[in-house]
Design brief:
Length: 207
């Protein structure tokens, strides 16, 4: 399990590293602006991680008890709260992110650049909730191999999109690739989620 999680984490770090590298190729101001926006994304992640941690504990208890109803309830309730929080964070970044950027930098060109791409950061936060929740579900269910596989697939998707997007549309394309990255993380886990749910259904039947 530790090996799987390490590979998964390295894939995520590689994705963010590639994002920074591609951004650096677009100029110093773009690199600095992207870094500021990633600080806002990271800050938002602390809130969403809380619901993923709850999902880990509740899903782990449900899977251990082989209780499909409890599993679905844990996923539903934690995800509903996470979605509402992600929406609030995204709206807050969209409306108030410019003020926060002003606190983080005194360089006008960097601030202007960060403000231009702020909606992409807000969109990333909004859509990242599915990946956070599914990570929590699979850690709770000890489905670390599935997380590893999904991370490898999503990294490959991101690398392709980042290269093509940055070359075609500059930083807009790069941020679009980041959004695709977090969507791909969740999409790659969905088939495994269905299998996990179906496996609990079979256990209910046998019991």
């Amino acid at each position: 399990a530790n090996g799987d999680i390490m590979i998964r984490t390295l894939c995520l770090l590689a994705g963010f590293g590639l994002f920074a590298r591609q951004g650096a190729g677009l100029g110093d101001a773009t690199l600095a602006a992207n870094h500021l926006l990633l600080q806002l994304v990271s800050f938002s992640a602390f809130f969403l991680d809380g619901f993923a941690f709850v999902a880990e504990a509740r899903v782990g208890a449900a899977v251990g008890a082989r209780d499909r109803a409890l599993f679905r309830r844990a996923v539903r309730l934690s995800s509903e709260l996470a979605v509402v929080t992600a929406a609030a964070l995204a709206i807050g970044l969209w409306l108030g992110g410019g003020t926060i950027i002003g606190w983080l930098t005194s360089l006008p060109d960097v601030a202007a650049m960060a403000h231009a791409y702020l909606p992409w950061a807000a969109l990333y936060v909004l859509l990242s909730v599915a990946a956070f929740q599914l990570d929590g579900v699979f850690i709770g269910a000890t489905g670390t191999a599935q997380m590893r596989n999904a991370a490898v697939v999503s990294l490959a998707v991101f690398a392709l999109c980042a290269w093509a997007g940055a070359n075609a549309w500059g930083n807009y394309g790069l941020w679009a690739a980041m959004v695709v990255f977090v969507i791909a993380r969740a999409a790659a886990l969905l088939p495994y989620y269905r299998r996990l749910d179906a496996g609990l259904a079979r256990r209910d039947t046998h019991s």
